[in-house]
Amino acid sequence: MSSTSKPAVPWLLAGPGLLLFATLLLVPLLLTAVLSFNVYDTTTGVQAGQYTLEHYVHVFTDDYYLGIFWRTFWISLLVTLICVAVGAPEAYVLSRMRNPWRSILLLIVLAPLLVSVVVRAFGWSMLLGPEGLVNGALRLIGIGPVKMLYTEIAVVIALVHVMLPFMVIPVWTSLQKLDPGVENAALSLNASPLTTLRRVVLPQVMPGVLSGSLIVFGLSASSFAIPGLLGGRRLKMVATIVYDEYLHELNWPLGATVALVLLVANMIVMLSFNRVVEGRYKKSLG
Amino acid sequence: MRNNGPLALAFNALVIAFMLAPLGVVCVVAFTPENTLSIPTTSFSLRWFRAVFEHPDFVASFWNSLWLALASATLATLLAVPAGIAVTRYQFPGRDFLNGLFLSPLIIPHLVLGVAMLRMFALVGGTGSFGWLVLAHTVIVTPYTLRLVVAALVGFDRSAEHAALSLGASQATVFRRITLPMILPGVTGGWLLAFINSFDEVTMSIFVTAPSTVTLPVRMYMYATESIDPLMAAVSALMIAVTAGAMLLLDRIYGLDRVLVGRAA
Q: Residue B254's domain spans which residues?
């Protein structure tokens, strides 16, 4: 197969996919961007052909929306920090186990990734409810019923459960690249286990931790089913408010605006994070 | 390699328990004989599973989800194999753009995709139609298939292809008799991963389904926001069973660890 003489061949091969992605991804995103500038009238609906910036002004000045963006931000940040604190050590502990436990336990940690998020949210709503197992256990040690369901606590716990695999995977991958000889060399040169961990292991898994954080933060910020089912009617996050605008308020332009602000904010966080990380690693490896 | 200390093992046990707790509790509560969500202690019952099969909405949604996942996984595979060949075997301007475009549904929040597709379907008058729904799901599962197809294409020895070509086999024969059999584990693995992801998808689907095309996760979401009873636990247990079955298949065909962490654990 010649690779340069017939430039049309790869486009023909990728053509059907490109057609699908153009009509169902690029065009709809563009249409949604246009929609977010359309005038909306509460009685007659979307005014095609009339444009305004009022939805963007509304989203950026109304305390209600700012509050929801702020809550989404700090919940995502908290979830990311907990995932780093739990996921990175867990990947390290797993990587030092022997088979078959190593493979079995790794699969147990990662497999929930493939179970529908609705099922997992429902499981947590049973565990965290006023009559749930967690409150039952708390009662045994003498702590009165704690209201967790429909509060930030439930949303954060369930999000950590959903996101943890996304942290374990990249950390695990970078641990596989780690040469155990280096760790042993440090130990044989009389470094304490703690020093070895800090000076040898940690720097090498940092890229994994950082890329995991990026995925976890992005997915948390746009999560829908977890805040929808565990946050109740009052505790809204960005995704659930978009759903409300679309299906209850029927104000599509405003919903489109919130969704696009989320998309752009996500992109900015990811790109700037990427830049910072790349810069640092270029410097240290340079 | 050093062993883990007791503290590390205790930590590990806690994390494993945390990961299994919500799935375990769902599976146990599904067997309750009571009318309320409770852990069955003395007797077990299948009454809530029977109730699921007698609930017309859940049955209809299950078939919707099944056909949707079969159709979109198949379509995604049919698109991803040639696209994968294009981006791995050819150097051409626009290659990075194509690759990025096909993988972009992994980065764009499903919420945004749902909103965007709803707008598109409303304009073409296809809101809630099953055909459009299949195409929408195809977009979100294609990246999973493409990644495995690309991995299969990159990691194989092309000398057999060159030998066949030099012996006078046509390009089509080479593809059918050599390339396809060699990348088949990646292709079937990608199909299964696409199936699972389509079957489980809720965030985008909730925007683009109509009452007649509601999928099982969307039905469950709507049901759970209104009432919580053991019926929901039974449906969840069945969902877990379907996913676990697909995962076992995936493990036998491709290796679950390779799908999840990219290489043998």
A: 53-261
